[in-house]
């Protein structure tokens, strides 16, 4: 008689490395996954507020903040479905005299959500690389307390930070296009239940990227720090792991197999490096490395930096440790 599979709901964003799981080409041993494809902004809000899925991607910063307040329903797995050099996505008005990061001091800056991981990384890089602190700017947050990660983690603006909530009648895109904001740390205009900007800022003549050569800045930062910022991890319902502890490594192994499937296709593997901005199409030597590796060991410096930034930016009362966040069985992988 066939062994009965454990059926788990899973929420994922659709990208090259998650698609083998979503499409069922790769399945964890002993588990049948029922996937739902959701925009990350909405997914994290739904998980933090309603705990809808057994397994899902999760904002590393919001998960760290939530765990710092006490045990959460979730345990993390060292699977990183999103990485990006988020400080290179800063957009600024062309008529505000902003040509370098230091020029952001004293400016009005938008952010979808103050505590989201992308914003955490961008502020951390501004502080440590360019001497620009969060308190040097005035912040305008688009998400409402009711539809934000912070609404479920007790978010309050850190001491010394001036933060305003953007009224529901408008959004970051409109404010930046009109000139009511000077810059935005991140801009999200994909359709979901949480973010509400729709303006195509790339078509606005008075809006530009702070770093005109984004890939050059990515390469500079990576060469100096060795950090390729992680945005998302995976989380599993804690009660599931207490009952079925084998689930953690079975899921981790499946995600590694999915990633390997992409790597097995030469173009797909190279696309991951081109996507990072760290290599060009002629950098075949990149195929011998993996800046997107899963696991704790390969990513420890990046993960430790996230823990540092969450604490030093006033989003947690103490600095968290990795063994407080990740499943014990994954700490040595």
Order of helices and strands: EHEHEHEEEHEHEHEEHEHHHHH
Mean pLDDT figure: 94
- Relative strand content: 15-25%
Uncertain stretches of 5 or more adjacent residues:
none
The domain count comes to 2
CATH class of the largest domain: Alpha Beta
How many helical stretches? Answer: 12
CATH topology of the largest domain: D-Maltodextrin-Binding Protein, domain 2
Shape: globular
Structural class designation: alpha/beta
Across the major sheet, the strand order is 8-7-6-9-5-10
Main sheet specs: 6 strands, mixed
State the helical fraction. 25-40%
CATH superfamily caption of the largest domain = Periplasmic binding protein-like II
End-to-end gap: 34 Å
Please identify, by name, the CATH architecture of the largest domain.
Answer: 3-Layer(aba) Sandwich
| Radius of gyration (Å) | 20 Å
Number of strands: 11
Helix-strand layout with pairing:
Blueprint (H helix, E strand, L loop, with lengths): L5 E7 L6 H4 L8 E7 L2 H11 L4 E5 H9 L5 E10 L7 E3 L14 E4 L5 H14 L7 E4 L8 H4 L8 E4 L6 H7 L4 E2 L22 E3 L4 H12 L4 E8 H6 L3 H18 L1 H11 L19 H17 L9 H4 L8
């Amino acid at each position: 008689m066939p062994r009965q599979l454990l059926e788990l709901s899973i929420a994922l964003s659709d990208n090259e490395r998650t698609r083998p799981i979503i499409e069922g080409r790769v399945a964890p041993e002993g588990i049948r996954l029922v996937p739902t494809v959701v925009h990350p902004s909405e997914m994290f809000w739904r998980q933090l507020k309603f705990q809808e899925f057994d397994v899902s991607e999760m904002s590393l910063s919001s998960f760290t903040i939530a765990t710092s307040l006490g045990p959460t329903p979730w345990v993390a797995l060292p699977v990183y479905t999103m990485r990006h050099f988020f400080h290179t996505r800063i957009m600024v008005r062309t008529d505000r005299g902003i040509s370098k990061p230091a020029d952001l001091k004293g400016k009005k800056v938008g952010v979808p959500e103050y505590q989201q991981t992308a914003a955490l990384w961008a502020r951390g890089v501004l502080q440590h690389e360019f001497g620009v602190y969060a308190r040097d700017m005035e912040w305008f947050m688009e998400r409402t307390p009711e539809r934000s990660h912070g609404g479920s983690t007790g978010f309050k603006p850190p001491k010394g930070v001036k933060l305003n909530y953007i009224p529901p009648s408008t959004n970051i895109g409109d404010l930046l296009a009109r000139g009511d904001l000077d810059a935005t740390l991140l801009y999200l205009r994909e359709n979901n239940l949480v973010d509400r900007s729709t303006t195509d800022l790339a078509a606005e003549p008075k809006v530009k990227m702070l770093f005109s050569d984004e890939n050059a800045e990515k390469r500079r930062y990576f060469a100096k720090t060795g950090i390729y910022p992680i945005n998302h991890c995976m989380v599993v319902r804690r009660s599931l792991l207490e009952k079925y502890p084998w689930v953690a490594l079975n899921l981790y192994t499946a995600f590694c197999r999915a990633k390997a499937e992409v790597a097995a296709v030469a173009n797909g593997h190279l696309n991951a490096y081109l996507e990072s901005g760290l290599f060009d199409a002629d950098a075949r030597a990149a195929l011998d490395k993996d800046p997107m590796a899963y696991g704790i060991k390969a990513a420890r410096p990046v993960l430790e930096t996230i823990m540092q930034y969450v604490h030093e930016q006033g989003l947690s009362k103490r600095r968290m440790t990795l063994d407080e966040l990740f499943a014990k069985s994954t700490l040595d992988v």
